[in-house]
Design brief:
single chain; 181 residues; alpha+beta; four-stranded mixed sheet; 6 helices; 38% helix; elongated
Length: 181
């Protein structure tokens, strides 16, 4: 079965808007998140800096400014290196940058990402495709997710019931975990 991917006549309610520029990928919290996740620093250092920031110490600001500048530079690189096409509720992203999925989700709730040069643990580079949905409850009515998964499994010679696209065990566990209480 082929899923109709034509865009709807009008944007879906709640559909993400396009990025105006790299600044849209960097929020006020980004520098703090990057500081906290910086594994190049000894653990005590980010803890001390975050504690100082929480206490209102202005001396931390130059450190945060460097993280903000680095995040903005990475966003510029990602937007320059990735090709994004939006088809209604689906963003198709091609490229090898680590922000591919994040940028795709800024455009649409469903992302089809292709990394043409994926390499895992030093193995030879090959193409890798990822199809993901931000929130199954936010799926637009024009997208038949079960039919899309079935079509992908039929087309993929490596797909098995245990490891295919949207494998039943993973899909049902995800639905249970994301179901409203």
């Amino acid at each position: 079965m082929v899923t109709d991917l034509r865009p709807p006549a009008t944007p879906a309610v709640g559909q993400a808007s396009a990025l105006a520029g790299p600044q849209d990928l960097v929020s006020a919290a980004t520098p703090l998140m990057h500081l906290a996740a910086d594994h190049a620093r000894p653990l005590a250092e980010p803890v001390e800096l975050v504690a100082a920031w929480l206490s209102g110490d202005d001396a931390v600001q130059p450190v945060l400014d460097r993280y903000a500048d680095a995040a903005l530079a990475e966003a510029r690189t990602a937007l320059a290196d990735l090709d994004v096409t939006v088809l209604g509720p689906i963003a198709v992203v091609t490229g090898s940058h680590r922000l591919a999925m994040s940028i795709g989700y800024r455009h649409a709730p469903v992302v089809v990402a292709t990394n043409p040069a994926f390499s895992f643990v030093g193995r030879a580079a090959h193409g890798k495709h990822t199809v993901a949905v931000w929130n199954t409850q936010a799926l637009p009515a024009v997208l038949d997710w079960p039919s899309l998964i079935a079509t992908l499994n039929e087309a993929d010679p490596a797909a098995t019931p245990a490891s295919g696209w949207g494998a039943p065990a993973a899909s049902s566990a995800h639905r249970k975990a994301s179901a409203p209480a």
